[in-house]
Amino acid sequence: xxxxxxxxxxxxxxxxxxxxxxxxxxxxxxxxxxxxxxxxxxxxxxxxxxxxxxxxxxxxxxxxxxxxxxxxxxxxxxxxxxxxxxxxxxxxxxxxxxxxxxxxxxxxxxxxxxxxxxxxxxxxxxxxxxxxxxxxxxxxxxxxxxxxxxxxxxxxxxxxxxxxxxxxxxxxxxxxxxxxxxxxxxxxxxxxxxxxxxxxxxxxxxxxxxxxxxxxxxxxxxxxxxxxxxxxxxxxxxxxxxxxxxxxxxxxxxxxxxxxxxxxxxxxxxxxxxxxxxxxxxxxxxxxxxxxxxxxxxxxxxxxxxxxxxxxxxxxxxxxxxxxxxxxxxxxxxxxxxxxxxxxxxxxxxxxxxxxxxxxxxxxxxxxxxxxxxxxxxxxxxxxxxxxxxxxxxxxxxxxxxxxxxxxxxxxxxxxxxxxxxxxxxxxxxxxxxxxxxxxxxxxxxxxxxxxxxxxxxxxxxxxxxxxxxxxxxxxxxxxxx
Length: 482
Known about the structure:
Layout: H1 4-55, E1 73-76, E2 82-85, E3 89-93, E4 128-129, E5 135-143, E6 146-158, E7 164-172, H2 174-226, H3 241-290, H4 297-321, E8 329-332, H5 333-342, E9 351-355, E10 361-364, H6 366-383, E11 388-395, E12 398-405, H7 439-449, E13 453-458, E14 464-471
Parallel strand pairs: 9-11
Antiparallel strand pairs: 1-2, 1-7, 3-5, 4-6, 5-6, 6-7, 8-10, 11-12, 12-14, 13-14
């Protein structure tokens, strides 16, 4: 069953059927028990009336048993012999004996001395009826040719002669059986109707609830077929799960569209950036092949180095976009900064380093963080006039590396744009030889992967101040990647 509507309707119908079945069974059992108890009470009343007559010494053949059809009566003695039955009783069961023909009673026992009164006469002719709760059984009785089911109550009585007799009186169960049959028939007739209503309502409600989902599915199928990520699925006005699904789907499509567009721009910009050094290198090699004496080896080396650096930057960006997680090696940023600065022997502007806070440590990839420092220093060297300053200090549960230059600075409106890929500002921060507009983009991506941030503000003395904040290392260092 592939339809959600069908499964929901079937499930609701099964649950309701089980619930109604259990409730109906409970109702029938309670109804039967109550009606049976009522019949038992009627049988007890009839039995005690006959027992009272026996206790008063009424002869067995003169007992008033009332309506024989309503309350058939059988009286037995201590030996189980039938001593009296109601008129027209032809057969009986459920009382311990099925005999309906009275037998002569046994002679009464002779009274002893305790049974005589103070004057020497016999005790008063009066017996008693047992006050104990009667025993109840179900059986049948045939009265004047009509056989029916009865609830029998058994009450003991002692006649004036001291004999213990048991009165079995019945009450008909026909009313109980008719009531149970009527209720059962009504339930069996109404249950299918109720189940059909439940199934139909569930089907309609589920269909209405899932109608927006079908709209989302159709639109997603159309988007997949057309590859147009600019389209969006319809969002219902409700605030339920389907509406949230539609909003999440649209947010996913928006993120996917932005990612695809970013990849397209990346590929286009990368192709453009690669075309220039490759074309220059090819031209030099072709000229050198035709005229060896005109081969510009230094220029070919420069183009090759530029091409190699660009390829390395593109590879690192691809790894970052793929979600590569940095290592968790413990690093002392102060020592890393000094090491990076000491290797920059060809810089045109001297770099001053100031480490405060006792050598703060962070956790991350040494190679990636070294690339960030190198890119920030390269950027500062391009735009500095006389000095570049690097400061390492603790701040807000982390470590801040600030790189300042005394150049023209970054306009406030461009401070986020410079971190986009292949973006180069005009005028003061236009690209010089070798710049491709990837350094700051790589630096910010690496900082974000390490749980940090990279921002740019104005330096106190003029120029630009790039601040790299990274969280301090917690716990023991783990092995990390480069």
